[in-house]
Known about the structure:
This protein is an all-alpha fold. The chain has 6 helices and no strands. The protein folds into 2 domains: 3-65, lambda repressor-like DNA-binding domains (434 Repressor (Amino-terminal Domain), Orthogonal Bundle), CATH 1.10.260; 72-101. α1 crosses α3 and α2 (21-28) crosses α3.
Amino acid sequence: MNNKIVGINVKKYRRAAGLTQEQLAEILDISTVHMSHIECGHVSMSIEILIRLCEILRVTPNHILNGAYTDSMDVPSDSILAGIPEKRRLLAHKLIEVLRNCPE
Length: 104
């Protein structure tokens, strides 16, 4: 699972809910440092925190995890990526997903 993408999604939905990191951390009963680390993709969150987070932000786990997991079978092998080893294709695909989810 890609923690960076999870963090981007958490931040996006937190902001949409009009909450600061501090407010969300307090509601979740975690430290603001831990909340920051989740959003920066430095740490994974537990299933319990994920479920509570989804309830608070009124989203599904799918919203938070969307794009965070890519099976090598899902990596397109179009002409741009043809001939690139599978690990590098997967990395390129993940990079594109991160860029797609970044705010402009």
